[in-house]
C-alpha cells in the first residue's frame, strides 16, 4: 500500500469528487448541459470564455509536464502552488485532527492552511549557523514520527532564508518517512538554484511531493498557475478534492504563451541575470558596516540583518523602495528581505542603503 493511500483521510476514501459538466469527453455538437449562455459576452471577443473551462487543460498539463520532466499523470495544475498546499492539507489532514511539521522561519502558507483545517503544527526551527540557515534533518524526521504527522513541508530554496537543502538529505528524509508521512518540497524558487529538483527523486520515493509555480521565475504571479508533482495515485486523490473549474481560461492561455519556446528562452536569460544581480547585491551589502549579515541565497532575494533594521527600512521607504520587513518572524528580529530587481533598481537599493552608513555615523 502506498504512503498516500495509507494517509488519505478515512472520511474521503469513498469520495469521488464533484462531477462537472466538463468531466469526461462530451460527444455531440450542441452542448446544453451546463446552463452556460448560448451567446458570448461582447467583452469576450474571441468567445473563449463562454463555456466552463476544462478542469485540467490538457495542453497546459502537457506543457508543464514537459517543463518539469514528468508525465502528465504526475502533475496537478492549480490556482498557484498555494492551492496545492491547501489541497494537501485537505486531503491528508482530517479537520481538527491532522498534524504537520514545518521549519521556521519559513513561508507562511503552510501554517495558514493548517490553521484553516485546524491541523496542529509542529515547528522544527532552521539552525542559524556558519554557512547560513540549515535544516535539522534528524529533528524533522523525529518530530514527524513522534507526532504521527501526515505532512512535512520543506522549502527549497528557503523563503525567506535563501538556504538550500542538499538533494541527498531530502532523499534520506523521504526514505526515513516512507510509509508514514508525505514529504512536500516547495520549489517556488527552484529555477534560481543550481541544485537538482526533488522531482528527480520521485521514482524512488512514493511519499515525495514537489511544488512548482509560474509565479516567480516565469514572471506570471497574477496568472495564478502552480503545480503539484507526485505519484499519479496521489495526484488523482488531490483532483477529487479540488474545486470543479480551478483554472480560468484567460489564465490558461497566458500560461501556455509563457511556456512557448521563445518565452522560455527569455525566462532563462532573466534567471541568469537575477543570479548575477544576486551575487552583486550580496557582495555590495556584505561590505557595509551597518550590515550585520547577508545570507547566501539560492532564490531571487537576499535576507539581510542590519544593526538598525528600522532605520534602513524607513530610509528605503522614504526613497520609494519597499522591501519585506521580516522582523516579526522567529529568529529574524533584525532582518529585511530584499527581492532582486532590475540592475537599475538594485543599484538604487545599494546606493540608498549605503547612504544610511553616513547617517549612522
Ligand atoms: C511565492 C511562493 C509560493 C508561490 O505560490 P503561488 O501560489 O504559486 O504564487 C509558494 N511557495 C513559496 C515558498 C513562495 O515563496
Outline of the structure:
With 361 residues, this protein is of the alpha/beta class.
Structure characteristics:
361 residues; alpha/beta; seven-stranded mixed sheet; four-stranded antiparallel sheet; 11 helices; 37% helix; globular; binds pyridoxal-5'-phosphate
Would you spell out the secondary-structure blueprint of this structure?
Blueprint: H1 3-7, H2 58-68, E1 75-79, H3 80-92, E2 99-102, H4 109-116, E3 120-123, E4 127-129, E5 132-134, H5 137-146, E6 151-155, H6 167-177, E7 182-186, E8 208-213, E9 225-229, H7 232-241, H8 249-258, H9 261-286, E10 291-294, E11 301-306, H10 309-318, E12 324-325, E13 335-339, H11 343-360
Parallel strand pairs: 2-3, 2-6, 6-7, 7-8
Antiparallel strand pairs: 1-9, 4-5, 8-9, 10-11, 11-13, 12-13
The protein binds pyridoxal-5'-phosphate (PLP).
Helix/sheet category: alpha/beta
Intertermini distance: 65 Å
Give the mean pLDDT: 96
Main sheet strand line-up: 1-9-8-7-6-2-3
The biggest sheet, with number of strands, parallel, antiparallel or mixed sense and barrel status, is: 7 strands, mixed
Low-confidence stretches: none
* Count of extended strands: 13
- Count of alpha/pi helices: 11
What's the gyration radius in Å? 22 Å
Share of residues in helices: 25-40%
Account of the 3D structure:
By secondary structure, the chain is an alpha/beta fold. It has eleven helices and 13 strands. A seven-stranded mixed sheet has the order 1-9-8-7-6-2-3, sandwiched between helices. Helix 6 links the parallel strand 6 and strand 7. It is globular, with a radius of gyration of 22 Å. Bound molecules: pyridoxal-5'-phosphate.
Amino acid at each position: 500500500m502506498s504512503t498516500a493511500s495509507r494517509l488519505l483521510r478515512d472520511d474521503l476514501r469513498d469520495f469521488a469528487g464533484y462531477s462537472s459538466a466538463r468531466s469526461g469527453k462530451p460527444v455531440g455538437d450542441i452542448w446544453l448541459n451546463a446552463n452556460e449562455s448560448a451567446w458570448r459576452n461582447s467583452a469576450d471577443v474571441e468567445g473563449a470564455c463562454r463555456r466552463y473551462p476544462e478542469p485540467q487543460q490538457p495542453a497546459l498539463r502537457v506543457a508543464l509536464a514537459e517543463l518539469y520532466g514528468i508525465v502528465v499523470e504526475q502533475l496537478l495544475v492549480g490556482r498557484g502552488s498555494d492551492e496545492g498546499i491547501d489541497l494537501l492539507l485537505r486531503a491528508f489532514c482530517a479537520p481538527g485532527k491532522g498534524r504537520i511539521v514545518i521549519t521556521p522561519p519559513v513561508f507562511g502558507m503552510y501554517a495558514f492552511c493548517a490553521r484553516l483545517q485546524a491541523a496542529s503544527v509542529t515547528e522544527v526551527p532552521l539552525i542559524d549557523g556558519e554557512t547560513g540557515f540549515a535544516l535539522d534533518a534528524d529533528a524533522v524526521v523525529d518530530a514527524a514520527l513522534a507526532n504521527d504527522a501526515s505532512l512535512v513541508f520543506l522549502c527549497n530554496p528557503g523563503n525567506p532564508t535563501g538556504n538550500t537543502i542538499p538533494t541527498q538529505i531530502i532523499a534520506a528524509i523521504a526514505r526515513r518517512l516512507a510509509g508514514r508521512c508525505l514529504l512536500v518540497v516547495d520549489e517556488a524558487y527552484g529555477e534560481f538554484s543550481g541544485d537538482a529538483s526533488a522531482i528527480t527523486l520521485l521514482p524512488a520515493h512514493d511519499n515525495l511531493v514537489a511544488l512548482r509555480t509560474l509565479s516567480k521565475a516565469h514572471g506570471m504571479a497574477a496568472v495564478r498557475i502552480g503545480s503539484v508533482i507526485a505519484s499519479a495515485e496521489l495526484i488523482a486523490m488531490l483532483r477529487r478534492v479540488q474545486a470543479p473549474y480551478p483554472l480560468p481560461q484567460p489564465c490558461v492561455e497566458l500560461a501556455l504563451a509563457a511556456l512557448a519556446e521563445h518565452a522560455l528562452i527569455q525566462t532563462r536569460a532573466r534567471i541568469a541575470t537575477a543570479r548575477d544581480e544576486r551575487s552583486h547585491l550580496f557582495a555590495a551589502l556584505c561590505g557595509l558596516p551597518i550590515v550585520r549579515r547577508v545570507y547566501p541565497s539560492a532564490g531571487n532575494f537576499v535576507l539581510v540583518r542590519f544593526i538598525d533594521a528600522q532605520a534602513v527600512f524607513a530610509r528605503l521607504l522614504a526613497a520609494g523602495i519597499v522591501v519585506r520587513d521580516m522582523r516579526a518572524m522567529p529568529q529574524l528580529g533584525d532582518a529585511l528581505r530584499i527581492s532582486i530587481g532590475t540592475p537599475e533598481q538594485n543599484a538604487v537599493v545599494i546606493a540608498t542603503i549605503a547612504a544610511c552608513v553616513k547617517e549612522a555615523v
